Amino acid sequence: MNIFPKFPVGSTLGINYSGMHDSAIAIVTPEGQPIFAISLERLSRVKQDGRTLKELLASMPWDRIDKVAISAPEFLRGTDSCKSKLLSTILAKTRRADTLAHGPGFYEAMKMIPCEKVFVGHQDAHAASAFWGSGFEEALCLTYDGGMSNDIWFGGLYQCGRASGIQPLDQFDALQYAKVTTLYTFVTALLGFMPLRHEGKITGLAAYGEPTERCASLLKKWFEDEYAEIEETLYWVNCYDDNALPQLIPSSSKLYRYRSQIEGISKEELAASLQYFAEKHVIHILEKARVLGWKSPNICLAGGLFANVKINQKIAESGFSQLFVAPPMTDDGTALGAAWHVAARGAEFKPQTLHSMFLGPAYPKEISLELIKKEGINFKVLDTPTTTIAELLARGSIVAVFQGATEFGPRALGNRSILAQATQSDINRSLNERLNRTEFMPFAPMTREEDAELCYCDIGSVKHAAEFMTVTVNCKDMMKQLCPATVHVDGTARPQIVSAQHNPFIHEVLTEYKSLTGNPSIVNTSFNVHEEPIVCTPKDALRGFFESALEYLYIEGVGLISFEENKSVAIRYLHEKTKRKSQKDISNESLINFLDHALSERTDWLEKTSQDLQARTQELVDTRQTLVERTVALEKTSQDLQARTQELVDTRQTLVERTVALEKTSQDLQSRAQEIEKFNHASIFKRIFMNRNQ
Fold this sequence. Notes:
By secondary structure, this protein is α/β, with parallel strands linked by helices. The protein is built from 22 helices and 21 strands.
């Protein structure tokens, strides 16, 4: 089946691909209307799948795409580095820019794209994903995440306007500043949870503890003094791989010394302290912005940090009139943001306020019906499905809903949801047991737009954001009494506000449920098997329903499936489950394959090194033999020189003796000469005398 809907010629395709996590695509019309968006995980059934998008791109109708927007710069530009006016924790040692560069696998993936590519700054894409769907005429936009390869920024503050576009006021440099997202992920791993996946568990756990000074001191030390060390406790494997799963892995050996530092500290205490630390960090950024004169009544948020619904509540309460969070706030949302960013350059661009994230594949009832009949599943056609579902919920039954297009982003918003009563707190335990989940935050409530003010405090400033379940709010007493299953221990809830205009089916279910029970809200949790993505296809829905032993499944256009009436089918699905690899098995297998490959490469390197060492050793042996031979020759030469030297010494002695003899002979000769000279003088005088006498 072709999953792409019809869309106009000249549309923009947005792509997020990091080679690590959250690969996704989104299609936006020239007018700025999102037409389609999906994360790879929904199709591959691997949570946060970061592999290449080759299969999606292979079936893309390229004749309708004008440009492809990539949510990362094409190349790293370390020269853009600059000081932030809003951050204060500077790294003790500046990071090398080349550590942020994409590997060759990124550029190989880009070769799959057959038309013009536009590379968009990652934080620009995040900002666009929030602002262009917010409906604001102007706003500040704060982005903050773990960063992206080829981009030195991990966040920033932007001034946004419908006419002026999105302009940076301040940007957060990963080469110079510590990231609170890294600290949060580090503590997630330190407490034994999966990094980059279970940070939400820490947020939920925080409400059960209180921040303490001893934890604050630890967090401050890790963040300010040991940031480089805590960052090295986590590392990526299988990056840019087409087959093996990229994963962020904690290093047990490097985490060991930190575990000794938290002995005697409960998980709740550390989680509460971390949450408080992160909230203070973000509020400090916004307070400094106000001092600098960067103000607006409206604030938009995007980036992985703002998957933290409690931080979002603190921001909403810090002085803004309206808050909006990008519904796909994590990196998959940058596919939509990049597409919006590029489409915004066109003359036709006039985006409407975003009220729906039902942007994924939709499946005709014929496909669902054919599959159900093939599987031999009993079902009941419903004349008034909303009435039937409301009645089942009123009786305390659990109903999974599969309708329309799948949601884009991390939240199930009614098209791929599990619904239940919110009147009994015990539903959290029992439903989590069915779904094999471990959660510390209660399920989210679904509430009609008309009832929002009755249930929640100060909902007006976040009502639009709450359509997408991206912020917590304080609950009123009525909500705490009537719907305790959706209220956290701190008195907050993470509601989904439902309108008749934008979500008519669920709105009607809520209306009929309230008329039956008087209760304004029901439980909404994502329809997925433990550690798998939200279901996408009818087959995913059937498998999730039977494997989780839910009570009822409603499939749009088909009808209602009862677990009790299909136990033989359920047994078959459970039997198939035992033969199928779980998400954990797949992840472990990828990790084992990576380690095997790494070990094989290491073994090859060691063998080559051993051969090189053997050759070098032989060279050294040969060299030693040559040196020995030369030493012997030198010793003989030395002996010859010593003998020659002795000869020279003896010769010198002889010469000295002869010189002495010659000197004596010379003296004798001189004496003889003097005697002769005297004799000659005497002879001369004698002759003279004789001559005179004659």
